[in-house]
Design brief:
three-stranded parallel sheet, alpha/beta, 11 helices
Length: 267
């Protein structure tokens, strides 16, 4: 099969309980078939390359890494969402899937009297299963569901921080979407997020929700510290450009032959 195929992550293998049975069966089967038959393989991070290699038993050197971009968020015209937003708040993005780790961290934020806006939450019922007990509603918690990118950009422009507690991602796109808008990121310390965020992110152990609270309060108390992470975040997000991503994939596809050991991390 003379195709160049992009595989995003190994979540259907690592967290099958996150998805419906039919979705898991189809994707696990397709990943294994495609990984062994495609002429070239592309993925979004070194972490994902290693993970997919492990679950499909494909040599990881066959993968070219073409990371996601951030510039789709830089040019957005922000639009205020149709709900009241407090002057001080943090944003969380994700679903109630176990690997997203929203419930314990959001609960800790609210218990610490930190107003929190949670974007996403439900997911698509034909694909996802929640796996976590739902969020306990509180006057400090706003759950508007899915929002348009322009509305999320408005929240990033005004939030104290994005809190991203996921325990498993192939990349962690919200990190650089928030950073390109000048929103500091408080993030899970798992490998993919460290690969994407480097030193521009405040990391916490996702199994210790109180650590996320401490980092948020530190950003609130220290304006200079927060500005440092805003600046570092913008510099980090600028590494990720969709034109470069397309160029990376096109270069591999045009070779029309297997390309080995050609991973490219953004520098």
């Amino acid at each position: 099969m003379r195709q160049t195929v992009t595989l995003f992550d190994a979540s259907v293998f690592r967290f099958p309980e996150t998805f419906t049975r039919s979705f898991v069966f189809f994707y696990q089967l397709m990943y294994k078939l495609v990984a062994h038959r495609a002429i070239n393989l592309v993925t979004i991070s070194d972490f994902s390359a290693n993970e997919i290699s492990d679950v499909t038993k494909i040599d990881g050197r066959r993968f070219t890494v073409a990371p996601c971009g951030s510039n789709h968020f830089s040019g957005l015209t922000a639009v205020k969402p149709n709900f009241d937003v407090p002057e001080f708040f943090v944003v969380c993005v994700g679903t109630l899937a176990v690997r997203k780790n929203l419930v314990p961290v959001v609960s800790a934020l609210v218990m610490a009297d930190i107003p929190t806006v949670v974007v996403g939450v439900a997911g698509i019922s034909s694909v996802f299963r929640s796996g976590q007990v739902g969020l306990v509603m509180d006057e400090l918690l706003t759950v508007p569901g899915r929002l348009r990118d322009e509305e999320i950009a408005w929240l990033y422009d005004r939030a104290l921080a994005l809190v991203f507690p996921s325990v498993y991602e192939g990349f962690g796109l919200p990190i650089i979407e928030a950073q390109i808008r000048g929103c500091p990121v408080v993030c899970s310390s798992r490998p993919a997020m460290r690969e994407v965020g480097r030193q521009s992110v405040e990391y916490f152990n996702p199994e210790s929700p109180g650590d996320a609270v401490d980092l948020v309060l530190e950003l609130q108390a220290n304006a200079v510290h927060r500005e440092e992470f805003i600046r570092a975040g913008k510099e980090n997000a600028a590494r990720f450009d969709w034109d470069q991503t397309a160029s990376d994939i096109l270069r591999v596809a045009q070779a029309n032959r297997p390309v080995s050991g050609d991973r490219r991390a953004r520098r």
